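Two proteins were folded this term; both appear here.
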Amino acid sequence: MSDGIRSDLNRKALQLEYATIGWNVGEAFLTIGLGIAAGSLALIGFGSDSIIEIFASLVVVWHLIPGHAYDHPERTALALRLVAAAFAILAVVLISLSIRDLVSGRRPEESPWGVAYLAVTALVMFALARAKGRMATRLDSAPLRSEASMTFLDGMLSAGTMLGLALNAVLGWWWADPAAALLVGLVAANEAREN
């Protein structure tokens, strides 16, 4: 691949990362605020998870910034370890909160705004994950590929949290949200191990 093509692809990959960071910053503030208003640990936990995802995106930005060797093995290995650490932290947070909520039977209040926002977030994260995955293949970037997986998991977590909040509001199934978060936490733990 020529330097010009690689530079153009790299610029597009950075734009995807900046879009992810921007969305996740807004997501953190909004969902934590909605969670506090509804007394929903699921929404607060979801917003806190966004901070971990911002870190993973910043690692990929660091790996992709111009002026550094793209295929430097030590740099790539460090980026993968940092993203793996973010996956591990995400797994610990989600699994811990899920088990705590399942054991305590904690029931969140209804949050129609939270459900609506999470639906939009799921669509945005799935689109970003797909675009990043394609870009990772074109750049042959393992850190970007790994972070695209985290973005996909954010979409899954958005959908799971949304479904859990909706099932709680409509059917009173308080356990649906922590159960979905537990599943996403287990997937994140596996991603950390694979990285």
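Next, the second protein.
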Amino acid sequence: MPAPGRVLRAVFLVACFSLLPVRSSAATEALGVWAAARDAILDRVAPSSFDSRSLAGLSSMPSKGTIVTLSRAGKTRACQGSLHPEAATQRDETVRVARAVAAGDPRHPVLRPSEIPHLLLRVSLVRSIESIPAPNGLNPSRDGLWLRGGEGGEKNAIILPGEAKTASYMANEALRRAGIRAGETVEWFRLDLDWHEAPLFPTTSHSGGQ
């Protein structure tokens, strides 16, 4: 018969393991893409940092729309990506978008190596795009918003989950970013996204999606 101490220890361990969060396959995928994007950005901004092992699990994965965002002190530092992938595999799409971010966002100055310790990296993967009549029913902490408008749909804006506190603000900010004028045609789309966010030198991280 096992000693009482061993029994209690075994029960304690089982209880602890049962409290550990179970990472969904979607969250695991987002984390893997995040790691690959991080390495590709570091390799561009601070050469010789790239570790190709982070890409191994993505080489056979069909690509998804991928958005890579760098922020500093709560403000966007650079953002690049597409709702519709251009590369065949997630490996190639991740590297393509991450290197585009590292090369520079035309709306912001070129990234400097000295900024790396201060940057937060977020990678968002597009699960689905749903046409909606209006954005007032969206959940800003969970849903993304895509606005397409203007002649031929040439004006676009994307609001990612967590960038707004209300659906009304999401709509108004999307209109502002896209430069939509009164009377112009507008289409609204709900974005279902899986995402992972953490510092480039991570101490804590956060994943999201449904």
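The beta strands are 66-72, 75-82, 120-132, 144-149, 155-159, 186-199, 206-208. The longest strand covers residues 186-199. These notes refer to the second protein only.
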